[in-house]
TrEMBL record:
Positions of the Helicase XPB/Ssl2 N-terminal domain: 566-688
Pro residues composition bias: residue spans: 734-747
Compositional bias ranges of the Gly residues kind: 774-787
The protein's name: DNA-binding protein
High-level lineage: Bacteria, Bacillati, Actinomycetota, Actinomycetes, Kitasatosporales
Residue stretches spanning the membrane: none
Residues annotated as domain WYL: 797-859
Positions of region (Disordered): 502-541, 728-749, 763-794
Source organism: Streptomyces coelicolor (strain ATCC BAA-471 / A3(2) / M145)
Amino acid sequence: MSTEEKSAAPRSLAEALRVRDDVSLAALLRSRPDLITPVPTDLTQLATRAGTRASVVRALERLDRFALQTAEALAVAPDPASYGELLALMGGDEQDPAVAAALPRAAALLREQALVWGADDRLRLVRTARELLAPSPQHPSPTGLGPTVREATAGMSPGRIQDILAAVGLPSTHDAVSAVSALGSLFADRRRMAALLAELPWESREVLDRLVWGPPYGQVTHDPAAHLRALLDRGLLLPTAPGTVVLPREVALHLRAGRAHRAPEPVPPQVEAAATHRPQVVDATAAGQALAALATVDELLKEWDEGGPTVLRAGGLSVRDLKRTAVALDVPEPVAAFWVELAYGAGLIASDGEAEERYAATPAYDEWRELPPAERWARLAGTWLTATRTPGVVGGRDAKDRTLSALGPNLDRSAAPEVRHRVLALLAGLPEGASPVAESVLARLRWERPLRGPQQQRATGAGAAREDDLRSRIARWTLSEAELLGVTGRGALAAPGRALIGAPEAPRPATANDTAGPGGPGDKLPVHHHRTPPVTAPPTPAERAAATATAARLLAPLFPEPLDHVLLQADLTAVAPGPLERGLADVLGVLADVESKGGATVYRFTPGSVRRALDAGQSAADLHAFLARHSRTPVPQPLTYLIDDVARRHGRLRVGAASAYVRCDDDATLDEILADKRAAGLGLRRLAPTVLAAQADPAALLDGLRAIGFAPAAESAAGDVLIARADSHRTPPRAAPEPVPDGPPAPDDTLLAAAIRAVRAGDLASTTPRKPGPGDGEGGGESGMPGGPLPRTGAAETLATMQAAVLTGEALWIGYVNAEGAASQRVIAPIRVEGGFVTAYDHTADEVRTYPLHRVTGVAELADDAG
């Protein structure tokens, strides 16, 4: 190939990709992973796939606002356009230095993602992107520009075009093509166009001003007014349909001073700081929230320890069960949905799968409880960061107008992990201890993934506007959920949260001298202008695991040491001034009821709670010893009396299965029960002085007598007291729900290298010239180039050519049909031919392979200049 041919401009996207180096191809495949799912056979197939509608739409959706504006400008620019023409469209007649500085990056990004190809003097937007972004009567351009003069006059009569030329003072021409060209040149000439507009009445100028920024279409009557007639006569408005006119693109660009967009946005909006706190305060606040998060999840799982709410037929929690859970946790229902979904996402709760299906804790919950507190938090935080299930949508409606329930289906939102990670990354870009202005975070996210208006929905689908709105809502939910979970403290990103996303060390906060206003330090809260971190690929599983471990390590010193004591008070309460050791907390949770939570937890002792401890197998002596051992204050006398009184009455009555009976050595107690009207529903009757029979079953009899005020104990058939122990209900082992990815995952370096090697090898096989063979005159395709029909040779000729290539070391072009019947072309260098097989180095696969000779359709030698 000559130097002249090598330097020639590419004629297609495939040729443009062919001259790229491996680093550039890797950048393309990393930004558009759908292009290697599966790996294309060669660069032509890669280019074809890069131009499909689905892939282009996905790529456009991931552009930032300025890059998207650049693509929109190219869609209304000449095809091809020079870089100078693009710069003029983006910056207008009065070039904005910020636009000129940012445009090279935007153009390079579009070229890297194969949305634009060609040299700077011949930039081409891929056809599918142009079709999506270019104007049409049904879908105006996102720029608000209409069709060109040539496009708008395509169906106009030649006589009418000549009339327009005469009205604007241009000489008539011999054909419509030259007439349209002359009219377009006039509209593109700034000086002549200004003179033409100066002749118009002000009413006509008002009409143009209303159409200039779009939409460019308007309605006119059959007999338009004089100021509209002036515009129509001069071609400043052109008819597109009966009663409809359009402002030609050239006219609009003149009125816009050459700009394609009303407001180009080359610079992303900065995330502003709402307040700044000392980093130590932020970390301490976040650690307190993290402890509260662990306590809340633990309380939820204990609430469901013996079996939680039933599973709806369609899946999920009922509205009533969610309300009950919210009351039990003392939180609003949306917050309860968040905790339930977090525990479910971490694999701590699941459906038990039994006949009456209920939610319950999983075996993983018991393993989780054994972990140190910081590691338990890190597991919850890591789950939250990567989960696609979005609790914020609970209570909304799905596409079929059904209510979305917690733990139910259809809660996955693929964008959630990306949005959460990006919000935290933006917070990490603020000075340490700074909390953000929420609206500035949303504004930055909209710039990075711009909202799609009605004019752009054909590029992203009818639901795009709703999805973009969802992204903003996910960002708001992220800010509140991060605070609940302890990833942030007082709105600022804490050190463990920074480690969780793998962010670098925080920048130093600006001092008062750096940020003082005109009136001196402290006049107003400074706005921190900083360089926020760029949008990066999501971390790999190994990177996430390392980040989670680092976050746990940073959080552990922030947690207070668990306490082994409480403070008993005379009003039958116990105060835990901090987190308790697990054993102490478990026993105290049975012996007393939680009255209030916060920095200190208050427990209250009641007859019911003491009876619960006795039912669990504790004796009065055990309870006295436990309280004396763990109280820093003397055990109050009222509490001692309460325990002794409940224990003295505990078990005096015995309930067993006859249907059921009650026996007691004290006749007077049985007389009291029979005389009580509240016991009438139990169907009691005396069988003996110390025995009563009941129609109710033993469990109902126990509950009924306890409701009256007695403290009966159950007994076995042998007469032994049965200690009622709560059996923890566990589901079978369950896997945590897998996130639903937003398209194919980003390829790692190993996969990228292998994919590029395979594509290069396949491209070599499909583009290497070959010598003309016997079938060239009969087939189709180009002589000497693969890509047409497979080579066809007889078995004897195929074998002889293969054997000769083994001796000479030459490469061959073969056609091959695999066991599934799929045909392909390959370039191979035969190494050995024996037993009906050929072993060869396959340039297409870039490895040594063995092929059955009977599956080779034919063989041809490569041309002498094939290297």
